[in-house]
Design a protein that fits this description.
Length: 426
């Protein structure tokens, strides 16, 4: 009963686990806290929704319902345009009328100049969710989890909710119940479908529709890479950690930056965007001690393509960008030896190691603290490994099906679903 993955990958995983009391085991403590917060939220947002509806019931203008929208896309942040953009392009080709609701005033959708895609800013936070809760539409697509868990409730006037994963990682990396109340989920690999089926069985939920249709933004990134390959004249290491207490910068901090500078390689440090607000003090301290120089640069570009393309190897933890780098650019990673508490995530329900962590050894080598003393050798050995190159292809096949076809397949599915749902009599 909780929030989002965003997806950073597992910081999707973007909130720390609840406080655990000494007399309760960690799993039980987290569950009880989650249930309590969820119950309180249901009451609060239930009352909020009641009063909003009551207000509108006395508003004659609001009573004049518009015609049901055939298809709606909801984005809670502009950064998901890399997922929705390719899909919108395909929907535009099919002349599918679509309303694109976003909680970012500067969403790239407003600059796309579509004829059939209509972008609309609905407000941030609860203001936007209040509108969604009274939406009238046939089909809605979103990357946002926790539908019908927190403030975003299923509208009685929306017939079908479709969720699309925005990363190639575990479908269980959302906080608990993240996708339980969607009618359908679009995934990129068969393993994700199997995870969803296991959760449904454990929770005694009816089977939702799960379609393996690939992942649009990786297709676009791959196509871009093939046309913009970079001439690597200088060995470059990209340090790209996620944020939060399990993140690499929190664990190693100055130690890893010192070790990287000793290699003599060019270093790009690209913190997770959330770090600049949630870990401001820590990050500002590091940036002051290790300022931009000829050897080291701090990167805050909105588009991460350039720094990925320029880098020969990535050092990260469990950030979702690992998969972008390894699978699209076919380059190795070093992943930090960090712990991860899955007790508040859907993965807690499954008696198996998360696919993400099972995959990391096939994408690169684990970086341990003792490796920092000779980091250059570790980097060189990892970059020259032919075995890792072969195993990256195995991971790619598991999590990235329908390569190059995803946006088209997703658009076909959505157009057909709109037609199917609109023909069903109430």
């Amino acid at each position: 009963m909780v929030e989002y993955m965003n997806i950073d990958l597992l910081n999707l995983l973007n909130e720390t686990a609840p406080v655990k009391y000494a007399y309760i085991d960690p799993g039980t403590g987290s569950m009880l806290f989650t249930i309590l917060i969820g119950a309180v939220s249901v009451v609060i947002y239930g009352l909020r929704g009641f009063f909003i509806k009551l207000r509108y019931s006395f508003n004659k203008d609001a009573k004049k319902n518009e015609n049901t929208l055939p298809f709606v896309i909801f984005s809670d942040d502009k950064r998901y345009w890399n997922t929705f953009g390719p899909i919108c392009e395909e929907l535009e080709k099919r002349k599918q009328k679509t309303v694109y609701l976003t909680q970012s005033e500067d969403d790239p959708a407003f600059n796309a100049n579509y004829e059939y895609i209509q972008p609309e800013f609905i407000g941030e936070g609860n203001k936007g969710f209040a509108k969604l809760n009274m939406l009238d539409a046939d089909v809605l697509l979103s990357t946002t989890p926790s539908l019908d868990v927190y403030q975003w409730k299923r509208s009685k006037n929306v017939k079908y909710y479709v969720h699309i994963l925005h990363a190639a990682n575990d479908a269980t990396s959302y906080r608990m119940f993240g996708i339980d109340y969607y009618d359908a989920v679009i995934v990129s690999g068969q393993y994700q479908k199997e995870q969803i089926r296991k959760l449904e069985e454990l929770r005694h939920l009816p089977e939702k529709e799960v379609e393996v249709l690939g992942i649009p933004y990786l297709d676009v990134m791959k196509k871009r890479y093939e046309s913009e390959k970079y001439d690597h004249t200088e060995k470059t290491v990209l340090l790209a950690p996620t944020w939060g207490p399990y993140g690499l910068l929190n664990k190693y901090g100055e130690k890893i930056l010192d070790a990287l500078l000793k290699t003599g390689y060019h270093v790009i440090v690209r913190p997770h965007p959330q770090s600049f607000s949630s870990e401001k003090e820590m990050l500002e301290g590091l940036m002051k001690k290790y300022p931009d120089s000829d050897q080291l640069e701090w990167n805050r570009d909105r588009d991460n393509f350039s720094c990925l393309n320029r880098s020969d190897i990535m050092i990260s933890d469990f950030s979702g960008v690992i998969f972008d780098f390894s699978l699209v650019f076919d380059r190795p990673i070093l992943y930090a030896d960090v712990s991860f508490d899955k007790s508040v995530y859907d993965a807690w329900w499954l008696d198996e190691e998360m696919w993400t962590f099972r995959s990391l050894p096939r994408l690169g080598r684990q970086l341990k603290e003792e490796d920092l003393s000779d980091l250059k050798k570790v980097i060189d050995d990892t970059m020259n490994s032919e075995e890792l190159q072969r195993s990256r292809e195995e991971v790619r096949k598991e999590c990235w099906e329908h390569m190059g076809e995803s946006a088209s397949l997703v658009a076909d599915y959505l157009v057909n679903k709109v037609k199917e749902v609109s023909e069903v009599k109430e």
